[in-house]
Amino acid sequence: MRFAINDGQRIEATPRATGRCPGCNAELIAKCGTKKVWHWAHKGLRHCDHWWENETQWHRDWKSHFPVDWQEIAARDEHGELHIADVKTPKGLAVEFQHSYLRSDEARKRTRFHQPMFWIVDGLRRKTDHSQFLRALADGFKHPTKDGLVHQLWIHDSRLLKEWVHVGVIVAFDFGEDTLWVLRRIKNDWIYGFMYPKSKLVGHILEGTAIPDILFGEPARSRPCRARF
Ligand SMILES: [Zn+2]
Hints:
This protein is 20% helix and 34% strand. By secondary structure, the protein is of the alpha+beta class.
């Protein structure tokens, strides 16, 4: 984890620092090596949140866009099980940054727990995901709208799409560029999405404003993104 609690403050891991877990209050160890990003670890092997994913620089870069006290927010489910949201805004929107592979049913379970929430997925973890996605784009349909191009992609053309389109909330793929692919609507085996600047998406989260939508056949001039299918 990025933060531990020390004297009521959230502090980052530095050599010989001490702190407690903001989730379970256990004593944590500051891990400050050269291979992984500096982080806090539980003393045993087990993390108190069994959904927790080892952090990468990619996670850190994303979290750093948001205030410290929005990051790593713990909550318990109805069975008392603890889970820590990567980012949670004061309005209650959670954002999860997913680097490693996650089974679709597991992603749906976590989505239900964190709702309202959306996912930002690291599209560069596997070598072929980006090229496969680009091919899906090339083979997909393009719908010009007054607000830009809406893409219609066949989900079976991309492993990343197949894994993520059924979570039922917004998913954004991050291929390491200034723009993300925001996937919003699924109809049968087609997903609809658009390119969107990373900085604008961060702005929506910071300001608590809605991320543009794609509407099916509804006239809605005020919406930032509109398409008829
Ligand atoms: Zn803990």
